[in-house]
C-alpha cells in the first residue's frame, strides 16, 4: 500500500502537490533562465495533473500556483477550542460551507503568532474574547482524513478559555452556539474540523495536563 493510500489521498494528488512544491522552490532560488523555464514547465505539469482528475481547468489551477512564491512549506490553519465555565464548546456556522458548524479559525496571519491568530479569529467570527491555555494539537491535515486539497497544511488547535465579549456573527459566520460533548451537531464543516478532533478537544479540556497531540 502506498503512502498516499494510507493517508487517504490519491497518488496523483500527492505527486502533483510535490511537483508544484519543487517548481515553486526552484523558481525562488534559481538564477539560470533555462532552469527557470524548466521549473515553469513543472508547475504547468502539476496543474495539468490535477486538472485531469478534477473539474477545475488547468489554467485556473496554474494561476493559483503562480500566486505562490518563496520556499514551499505547509500552510498553517489555526483553530480555537473555546470552553465556557459550564464546559461547553464554542462553534460557529461557516458561511462559505453552507452554514455548517466548525471551530472558529482560519489561516494564520503574518506578523502574528499562531496563538494570536486563533484569538483574533474567535473575536472576528463569534464576537467573544478568548485566552489561550495551551496548544492542544498540531496535526497534518492529510493524515487527519480531511477532504483532499491542493496544498499541504498543518492544523494547530488551541485550547482556550472564554474571557468576555458577546455573540456577534460576521461576513464569515452565520450562527454561533455553545455545545456540550454530547450535543455536537452532525453538519460539521469537514474541511475545517472533524468529529474526532472535537472529541479530543473535550478530552484536553477535562484533562488539562494531557500533552500536545501531534502527527
TrEMBL record:
CDD domains: NUDIX_CDP-Chase_like. Its cofactor is Mg(2+). PROSITE patterns: NUDIX (PS51462). The keyword Hydrolase applies. SUPFAM superfamilies: Nudix. The keyword Hydrolase applies. GO terms for molecular function: hydrolase activity. Pfam families: NUDIX, Nudix_N. Keywords: Hydrolase. InterPro entries: NUDIX_hydrolase-like_dom_sf (IPR015797), NUDIX_hydrolase_dom (IPR000086), UDP-X_N (IPR059176). PANTHER family: ADP-RIBOSE PYROPHOSPHATASE YJHB-RELATED, GDP-MANNOSE MANNOSYL HYDROLASE. This is NUDIX hydrolase. It comes from Gluconacetobacter diazotrophicus.
